[in-house]
């Protein structure tokens, strides 16, 4: 089985890690930040946002804490013969070298995988082209688009997608592993 997995807020705690920086830099409240992830609530142009992310946030991503048991269960899925494809929207818009940064992060955390696909702004297209069977992401938009391609999706539960009940939600990597292996 080919399993497509997002990076930020799916295998690691990116939003919680960078939220204090957004809060300070853009003078926002926790409520404003929790309601809307990333640039939607910021009072700046998209170019200003990309510049902020590239210069301030991107260098920090190598140290984002990994989600509990993510390494254990991703590696177990790989060892059991599944193919692991990381499909991330990390791109050259907001990072100097998204492929290298993400590759280093995966290596640093000893995560086994078959393929790393960055600049995946249209994850549904990437998932379809790579014959993904199951896709895991925290983004409602990406899960919606990927599911339209007939691919089974799991939505990683987070504060900004609490009200979405359109897809099976998963709270942790143990639960993801169980849902995948019990199918």
Keywords for this entry:
183 residues, alpha/beta, Rossmann fold, 2 domains, six-stranded parallel beta sheet
Protein described:
The chain is an alpha/beta fold and 183 residues long. The chain has 2 domains: 2-13 and 64-181, 3-Layer(aba) Sandwich (Rossmann fold), CATH 3.40.50; 15-62, no CATH class. The chain has 8 helices and 6 strands, in the order βααααβαβαβαββα. Helix 7 links the parallel strand 4 and strand 5 (152-156). Helix 4 packs parallel to helix 8 (173-181) and helix 6 (123-129) crosses helix 7. The mean pLDDT is 92.
Briefly summarize what is shown:
The protein has helices spanning 14-26, 30-35, 46-57, 70-79, 98-108, 123-129, 140-147, 173-181, and strands spanning 2-5, 83-87, 115-117, 134-137, 152-156, 169-170.
Strand content: 5-15%
Distance between the termini: 11 Å
Multimeric status of the protein: single chain
The CATH topology of the largest domain is Rossmann fold
Number of strands: 6
Principal-axes shape call = globular
CATH architecture type of the largest domain:
3-Layer(aba) Sandwich
Structural class: alpha/beta
Helix and strand pattern: EHHHHEHEHEHEEH
Would you tell me the overall average pLDDT? 92
Question: What is the topology, as strand order, of the major beta sheet?
Answer: 3-2-1-4-5-6
Query: What does the radius of gyration come to?
Result: 16 Å
Task: Specify the number of helices.
Answer: 8
Share in helix: 40-55%
Low-confidence stretches: none
CATH superfamily annotation of the largest domain: HAD superfamily/HAD-like
- Taken together, the total number of domains comes to 2
Biggest β-sheet strands, sense, barrel: 6 strands, parallel
């Amino acid at each position: 089985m080919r399993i497509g997995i997002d990076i930020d807020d799916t295998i690691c705690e990116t939003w919680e890690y960078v939220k204090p920086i957004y809060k300070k830099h853009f003078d926002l409240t926790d409520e404003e930040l929790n309601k809307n992830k990333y640039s939607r609530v910021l009072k700046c142009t998209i170019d200003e946002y990309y510049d902020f992310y590239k210069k301030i946030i991107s260098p920090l991503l190598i140290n984002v804490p990994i989600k509990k048991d993510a390494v254990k269960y991703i590696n177990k899925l790989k060892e059991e013969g599944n193919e692991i494809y990381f499909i991330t929207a990390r791109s050259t818009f907001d990072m100097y070298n998204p492929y290298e940064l993400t590759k280093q992060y995966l290596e640093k955390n000893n995560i086994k995988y078959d393929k790393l696909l960055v600049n995946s702004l249209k994850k549904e297209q990437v998932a379809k082209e790579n014959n993904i069977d199951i896709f895991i992401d925290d983004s409602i938009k990406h899960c919606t688009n990927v599911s339209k391609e007939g691919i089974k999706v799991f939505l990683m539960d987070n504060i900004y997608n609490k009200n979405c009940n359109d897809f099976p939600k998963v709270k942790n990597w143990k639960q993801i592993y169980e849902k995948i292996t019990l199918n």
